[in-house]
Amino acid sequence: MPAFLKHIEVENFKSYKGKLVIGPLKSFTAVVGPNGSGKSNFMDAISFVMGEKTSSLRVRRFNELIHGASVGKPVSRSASVTAVFELEDGSDKSYMRSVQGSSSEHRINGSIVTSQVYLTELEHLGINVKAKNFLVFQGAVESIAMKNPKERTALFEEISNSGALKNEYERLRHEMLRAEEETQCSYQKKKGIAAERKEAKLEKEEAEKYQRLKEEYSEKQIELQLFRLYHNERSIEDYENDYKKKLIKVDKCKKEKEKADDILKDKKQDSGKLTRNLAKIEQEIREVEVEITKKRPTFIKAKERVAHMQKKVESAKKSLIQAKTADEAHKKDIEALQEELRQVEEAKATYEASIAGQSQSQGRDVQLEDEQVREYNRLKEEAGKQSARYLQMLDSINREQKSDQDRLDNESRKKTDIENKLKQKGHMKDEALKRIEKLDEHIRTSEIALDDQKKLRTDLQSDVGTSKDKIQNLQRELERISEQLGDAKVDKHEVSRTKKKTEIVANFKGLFPGVYDRMYNMCEPIHKRYNVAITKVLGKYMEAIVVDTEKTARQCIQYLKEQYLEPETFLPLDYIQAKPLKERLRNIQEPKNVKLLYDVLHFSPKDIDRAVLFATNNALVCETPEDANKVAYEMDKKARYDCVALDGTFYQKAGIISGGSLDLAKKAKRWDEKQMSQLKSQKEKLTEELRDSLKKSRKESELNTIESQIRGLETRLKYNKNDLVATQKQIKEHENELSVLQMELDKFAPTISEIEKTMNERDQEIQNIKEKMNNVEDDVFSSFCEQIGVTNIRQYEERELRSQQERAKKRMEYDNQCNRINNQLDFENQRDTESNVLRWERAVQDADDKLEQAKQGEANQKNEIDNDEAQMEKLKVNKNNIKIEVDQKESDMNKCKKDVASAQKEITKAEKELALVDTKIEEKKAERHAMLMTCKMEDITIPMLNGNMEDIADDNGGGQNDTTTNNDSTLNTQQQYERESKIKIDYTQLSDNLKDIDDDDLRKETDKFNKELNKIQCDMQKIQAPNMKAIQKLYLAKEKLHETNEEFEQSRRRAKKAKTAFEKVKKERHDKFMACFEHVANEIDPIYKSLAKNQSAQAFLGPENPEEPYLDGINYNCVAPGKRFQPMSNLSGGEKTVAALALLFAIHSFQPAPFFVLDEIDAALDNTNIGKVASYIRDKTNSLQTIVISLKEEFYCHADALVGICPDVGGCLESKVLTLDLTTYPQ
């Protein structure tokens, strides 16, 4: 080992107060102590003396390293740490670093040195402060294993010191790339200039050829223009003579049309008046139908109410008859009871009178004196004494007899109660039976009414359902016809959109003079075969509104904005720029039947001629798409034309081709008058059918009324049926109760018979006892009986007692009968049947009144409906009559329209002929103007006898379209033509054979001139604008090529020099890095095997970029003993720690420091792995001094010495140090 750390001296450093010597330190020293004792401060002391920065020492400022400064009580102004090393020669060398306030001081062997010298001296010992190759902090072991490849590369660059060359490497690499880029740029510039020199030579040759062609082209142009101008002036003279003849014919046709217009106007007024009357009657019919529809549900309700009231009256009358019958029966019952009561009272009075007579006769027969009575009582008492035993027996038997009598009375009372209940339940059953009869009657009548209502509902549903389906079908058919009418411009009074558009035009005509009409209203194809073609070309202008001036158009647009109406297209006659008709297009012979669209279109009035020219735009119409394609693009090679086929295929001169469509076919139907008429009549028929169906559909309100009545009847029927079921259930319950009561009543007869039998037997026993008592009494009363003249005393007593008992019993019977009759009378009197009769009489009277009111209401409703229907029939008759008149007027009007149309056709034809001649004149003048302008613009100098090129006016039509009116434009054009007509051209240069030729030869000669000009022009265009300064350009290109060659050579030399410098630095950096990497890569696997104590364990490093490994990451992987390969992140904590220690020991072996400090590296290790790591360190003690901070005995028991650090209690932490040499003890 180059040096050995003997001990550490600390003075007032952190928790170490005063001056302490920690050591001597052995090859394997373990630092132990409890948590918080200052072990980590020992690590900080070693880091501090080895030159670590403040940020790694867990403080913010240097003065916080002084003992007590953390609590604001520093013990000194300075603190120091000294490390004493023993060198290979046996001498000692000390390194001290101290803190003085906020700065630090470095000393080597007591001499003050700079920090750079201090760090350099430490590096000589193998201590790299930047790489921290001498210590591992607490918790840093696993983080080393989990570093990403880039971080691992940075670690190797620190250890190998190749990172010091990184900035120089990047700088030289950037300079090399920039130099190579400059070289490439110079090379490309050199190639470009060489090509430029070659191009300059070619341009010089082209410029000379171009000048020759240009002179030849100018001569041909003058000859062509003279040729065209000569024949143009001759055509203008011929057309002007023809124009005068056509103008006379047009005036004659206009007078005939004015007469036909007056007749048509009168017919339209009469037809309009009848049409308004017809619409008014139809409105009145609809109003009457609405009234009938409104009144019909009320009539149905009234009819139903009458039926209901009739049933109610019948029910009330039945109930009244039943009430009267019950009242009469009730009165008869009361009279019978009163008669019975009178008879009972009379019988009672008769009986009382007979008793009174018997008492008087007995009183006279047996009348005792007072002395005899006293004697009777004395004897009775004496007899009682003698018969006391018999009396006692008699008393006991009498009590039993009385008890049975009570039982008999109780059973009799219960029997009477049950009989009363039987009678009450029987009455309730009778009432329920009567209710069932009423409910049956109600259910029967309700079911009949429900069946009637359901039949009526079925009929109404059939009508309404059928009418709904029919209405839907009719509406769909009407929509279809309306669409056709809308497309064909027929149904402008019925289709809302077309009607609105018609109203808009009518409003415009009334508000703003100068509004004509929509384009399609004023135009008509000459034959229906042109319908689709005309529709295609006109396009959006078909519905455009033609007005006289731009001012009128702007007024109309403002009106649309104010009324929030849809946008419209306007064609102001003074604003639009219409191209004149090309007369030569009328003379196309091949293909056949090619015509101008303008010629197949009739329009009226003549004033809109300019708008028609603008919309048709010289378009041609052909028979087939093939012909149209040929005419549009192949007929004239110099020009193209807009051409449309009869099927709607449109070939535009701009190259756009569009075909026909279904929508186009629909729009084209506007021109078919026959179909328009058929569609209109079909729509009227469908409208009439729709009205009839709507009438039937209006019965839906009646259907809703019937539905509600059916629901009410069903509800009442449901309640009645439920009530019937409940009443039947009550009757069954009553019958059950009656049977139960009858059974109970039947049980009383045996009980009462048994009691009576027992009492009779006891009466016999009483008689026997009494006989015995009588015998006693006979002996006692024998003399007394002789005195009063009776056989025995009992004769006297029985006669008196019997007569009294019989009288009492008889009176009781009479009283019971009277009570029974009175109770029945009270019950019958409580039943007020008479009020029930009065109530039902009132109900019948009320029902009769309501029935009469309902009948009256029904009659009134029926009369109103009959009156409305009669009125509607009358209106329908009137409507039919007026409709016949309207049809007749329309027929007359159509005839007048045909006359007007015929006259208009004649006018149109004559005007077209006139316009054609006028247009041809204008075309020829425009052609002459265009020729002169061409000469002026292209600087073609033509010879003139009178005038010059300045007299040819500029054409302002295209640039002033938006600011000038058409009248001004026309005036300017005429002024131009008049001024240009004064120009006299000298045709002497034109040969005679070019003057006297017909039209066919004219076209051929023109084509010949154009071919020659085109050929010259093509030759000129091939030259592509020659550079007339090509000689000067060639000279400049030669000079630039010379300069570029020199610049290219210089950049090549710079690039070579930069590349050499870069390769040198690159090699140096690569060599340093790979020296470290290869050493570590070779050492790490055996170290890992030694730590794991297993030869199957594997550890290997691999660079991601083998050529320049410092630019990318380094991969580190381990295969733990007995396990398969897996990423480092999937290893356990202990396996990661062992892998990290293997990497640390391998890195440390590259440039080994004299000592290695490890802070609690065993935190994640179990005892087995701790023993393995400790054993490895133990094996390396000959070549490596290790200081380990550990809390586990399994680790520090292998050390050569122990340094114990313990805390001392005080104002702040104060660490004490104990040292123990273990080499004197056996292992």
From TrEMBL:
GO CC annotation terms, alphabetical: cohesin complex; nucleus
Protein name: Structural maintenance of chromosomes protein
Region (Disordered): 397-426, 951-973
Assigned protein family: Belongs to the SMC family. SMC1 subfamily.
Coiled coil: 162-291, 320-354, 457-491, 669-779, 811-927, 1031-1068
GO process terms (BP): cell division; sister chromatid cohesion
Subcellular location: Chromosome; Nucleus
SMC hinge domain ranges (all copies): 513-632
GO terms for MF: ATP binding; ATP hydrolysis activity; DNA binding
Biased composition (Low complexity): 961-973
InterPro entries: P-loop_NTPase, RecF/RecN/SMC_N, SMC, Smc1_ABC, SMC_hinge, SMC_hinge_sf
Family matches, as Pfam families: SMC_hinge (PF06470), SMC_N (PF02463)
Keywords: Cell cycle, Cell division, Chromosome, Coiled coil, Mitosis, Nucleus
Alphabetized Gene3D superfamilies for the sequence: 1.20.1060.20, 3.30.70.1620, P-loop containing nucleotide triphosphate hydrolases
